[in-house]
Write a structure and sequence with these properties.
The two termini are 46 Å apart. By secondary structure, the chain is mainly α. The chain has 13 helices and no strands.
């Protein structure tokens, strides 16, 4: 009798849990489905009376790459891609280097630096954007094609403060491996590049992914630094401009199409590298 009651209680709990998860999944997926359907909608404008489009078309996607008279989406996409790639490379290098040094080396001010980085991490980066802009303006990086350089510096300059997760993963690698390599005559740089990084593929993948996503989706810093330089706009600024009152009627459905397009690279990266991403987080938590 007790066995039957326990089994019934377990079944009831499973039904409740799965029902709640199904509702949450629907709430999460619903906006995504709406954006995808809107990107194929044939009717123009932002106000519609039905959830499902009355007609479907590919013109919204075609318009993004052919109509460059007002908003040059291909140019914005390339700007974002260039900035994201270079920022990703620099940020990943800074983060992994700082994490390795703090994990493997003992030096003066090591603990105070980690405490300071933890405190600074509590403050959002956009609090300093006005000061950063005037610094960039003073050194001549706020006009023309140098805006790309300015954005790359902004995104990668303070990346080393986010060393905590990578350091936690490096702490799980036995230090005896480093000692054996030092005895064999390896330098610290050789240990880092030829031993530690190959053993830390999950956290390298995780760091690269997070370093790429930041510049790819950022709006605040890009808007402040680009200002009215339309030829240097990123996709985040371009999508925002599509929703302004003078463009929204003609560009609303193309905005949805652009939102779908910029999500595809990130989705592909996560799907292909999901295993390494999860392993990286797991190893960091263990550390």
């Amino acid at each position: 009798m007790k066995h039957k009651s326990a089994k019934a209680a377990r079944l009831r709990n499973n039904i409740i849990v799965h029902t709640v998860l199904a509702i949450l999944a629907f709430v999460w997926v619903f906006p995504v489905l709406w954006v995808i359907m809107t990107s194929f909608r044939g009717e123009k404008g932002s106000y519609i009376s039905t959830f499902f489009p009355e007609t479907y078309t590919l013109d919204n996607y075609i318009k993004l790459f052919t109509d460059t008279t007002v908003l040059n989406f291909p140019k914005m996409f390339m700007n974002t891609l260039i900035i994201a790639i270079f920022s990703c490379l620099l940020s990943a290098f800074y983060v992994l280097s700082a994490a390795y040094c703090l994990s493997r080396m003992k030096f003066r001010m090591r603990k105070p630096y980690m405490n300071m980085a933890m405190v600074l991490g509590l403050f959002p980066g956009f609090m300093s954007m006005v000061a950063v802009y005037f610094i960039l303006k003073a050194v001549g990086l706020s006009e023309g094609s140098l805006i790309r350089v300015a954005l790359i510096l902004c995104y990668s300059g303070g990346a080393a403060l986010g060393f905590q997760i990578s350091k936690g993963f490096f702490d799980t690698i036995p230090y005896s491996i480093d000692e054996a390599a030092l005895i064999d005559g390896c330098t610290r740089w050789q240990i880092f590049t030829r031993i530690t990084l190959p053993l830390s593929k999950p956290i390298v993948i995780y760091t690269v992914l997070t370093a790429f996503i930041g510049p790819w989706v950022d709006f605040i810093f890009a808007k402040v630094i680009c200002r009215a330089n339309a030829d240097q706009y990123t996709v985040a600024i371009g999508l925002w401009r599509m929703l302004e009152k003078e463009y929204i009627d003609n560009w609303y459905t193309s905005f949805a199409a652009g939102a779908v397009l910029i999500s595809i690279p990130i989705a592909i990266l996560f799907l292909k590298l999901q295993k390494y991403y999860v392993d990286g987080m797991t190893g960091a938590v263990k550390g």
